[in-house]
Amino acid sequence: MKILLIASLHSLALPPTVQVELSKTVLLPCLFTLRPSASSSHEPPRIKWTKVWGQRGSDGLQKEQSVLVAKDNVKAFQGRVTLPGYNENRYNASLALTGLRSSDSGLYRCEVVVGISDEQDTVPLEVTGVVFHYRAPHDRYALSFADAKRVCVENSAVIATPGQLQATFADGYDNCDAGWLSDQTVRYPIQSPRPGCYGDREDSPGVRNYGDRSPDELFDVYCFAKQLQGEVFHSTVPEKLSLATASTHCHSLGAQLATVGQLYLAWQAGLDQCDPGWLADGSARYPINVPRKNCGGDEPGVRTIYNNPNRTGFPDTTALYDAYCYRDIDDCQSNPCQNGGTCIDEINSFVCLCLPSYGGAACEKGNDVDENSAFSFHPTKGKLVSSFLAYQCFCSCVVLFYTEGCEHTWRKFHGHCYRYFSRRHTWEDAEKDCREHSGHLASIHSLADQNFIRGGHDNTWIGLNDRTVEDDFQWTDKMDLQYENWRENQPDNFFAGGEDCVVMIAHENGKWNDVPCNYNLPYVCKKGTVLCGAPPTVDNAFLIGRKRSHYDIHSVARYQCADGFLQRHVPTAKCRANGRWDRPKIICIKCEFYTTLCCRYHSLQMTCLCWQNPERDRAT
Fold first, then answer.
1. What's the CATH class of domain 18-128?
2. Where is the Ig-like domain (predicted)?
């Protein structure tokens, strides 16, 4: 049998990790390119999924665990895994995995075999979140349903669902304490049934269910912490710490006492420390990943110090322990955004707000591409995926729109458009809103600019800030600092590093003052006066992103071919300084004239390569 391979998947870089919450369902993408020739037998492909373990055995090979094998319409697997697209397309090996458990995290390899030929690819999976049991500080079974939801939130978590507790039980969790769940039922997981701690069928392991309960009844609770937003670290001093001094100590380190949920997430990530420490709820706990002597038992987990032998009561607040502190990680500290982009810190990541002429994950130039290739742009990941087609056709002429001046509600002054927003935002959110309007918080470069902008009745944000380097003030639109109008003895950084954003003071003729960026104030946005109208239309293509009636100069419009059409040439057009759009170079060619030989998923995006069908050409 002759197999034609258009692309080898072995050499591709490892795709981004798929992150899904505990107990949810995930679809691991796998769509292969193998096709038998017309003269070969029609033997169906053999599909195999394998989980690859990180550690290696004594033979030096990576350990593997078979997940499923499928051939034709017979599937040699049961339970939580299916191939939802396999019946309709035998080369669609995408794997659905339900009821995700923490132990499901790992690297998955998909392999398809046709005759003596095969292809394979890998997908990393990370199951996020952790379930933990929580008890009131003073006694067992002391929480109503409302109290249960509240204490979970206070500890950086939410009340767990039955599915999340079941997934944790499947990974070996055993706890003989009845606790509230989100559906107002009360349950507890038992691995080893024993008197007073029976499973769901008395002497069988399972999750014991008390059923729906009155919200006024009192139990413990099972909480679910989703994702750690910063870092948890252990800290101590020679004389140890009371609860009050532990809180002060963490603050001196630019942090705060960690919550129970944060400590569990840090434990799940590998934190191992055999030293009890204070937490924000007044409890003392410590995380153990490597069980050892005098560290609280033979199983990994977070240990709790109780005041009473029956495992109730938090320690006296004057007792002396270490501290577990939590500090948010500012991913924007290294200034990762290029070309004047503004960095917005998010959970374990950052987002770059780019100037209109730039795009991509880090605001790299969006129009710096090879025009001899066709490209598909994935704006959520900032990646370019290239494909090739040796074919050419022509597109019809388009009408270009031109407009100059300022949009409605914007005021023109010295070649720029300004708008005052009375709604109140933090400085960061105000700048983000200005970017949404294709501008920035206002920059001021002369007394004339100053007099034009000032005059409001409230203190107002402007674009000046020293958030990147202390005392090095910069405008968000990257213009030079040519004019200053500081209030007397300002800037003074009064809050020792916390005053990084500049406000125009209404009652002092618009003098400037540096203040904390988390104040909620009105703001003034500024942008250029020359605008383009709607981007040109392209046959069989549509625009990516939010459509607007007008676009700032240097804006880049991105096109994507409709389903069933293949892209040729660069998919972008730029708004030039004269208010006119570039003529789009993209051409969308109907794929029915070609044989599709290569389709696969990249980060849940599919790219298809088309090639001329020689048999079709000979027939015509």
1. mainly beta
2. 7-128
